[in-house]
Amino acid sequence: MPDIPGPIPGTPPRNNTSNSTVRSIPVQRSYYPILLALFVVVFIISNVTATKGVALGPLITDGAFFLFPIAYVIGDVLSECYGFAATRRAIWTGFAAMMLAVASFYIAIALPSAPFYEGQDAFSAALGLVPRIVVASLAGYLVGQLLNSYVLVHMKQRTGEKSLWARLLGSTVVGECGDTLVFCLIAAPVIGIASVGDTVNYTVVGFLWKTAVEVAVMPVTYAVIRFVKNHEGY
User: How far is CA 113 from the centre of its chain?
Assistant: First the structure.
């Protein structure tokens, strides 16, 4: 049989697509990225809706009163399932994302409007977050979420897997108290709450409402924690 010639020396090998592979970093099968994304999105939306003062009969609150408890539910799931270090990473990610959102809002407001665009005033009013509101939100967010996660994980070190309800309730009370107190004391004058009585009303109602909602949805928190633990090989 005649010899089959090999490749010419110095020439690159033929591209055999059947044997070639495209290298990529494998994505771990985990619910952590999904929970982190929801956590950050809820925080950013809350900061926009919180600029509106809301009166529900005699109760004074803000437009984010229905969203903040969701952030704490997700924070509880992150803390219980992934620990304090992973939750702290999510908290700082949310902080950085909010800073980016605020910078983007101000840049978009400052850009010159197109001749046909007539919504500049409304756009500025909706997204031109008052610096004091941003400071209040970020400060309350950091204090509340870090306290919530720390208390839950610290209690878990003492109780082990038992008494999940106590960990969720205890961390909620401490975290929501810190968050609401810091945010309301800084933000109340900005949204038009001037008197001491209204400030106390705003703070107490916010704390009680957020805590009550998180307690009410505790069965959902239980179910999500159980689901994540079962699917993450806990």
Answer: 32
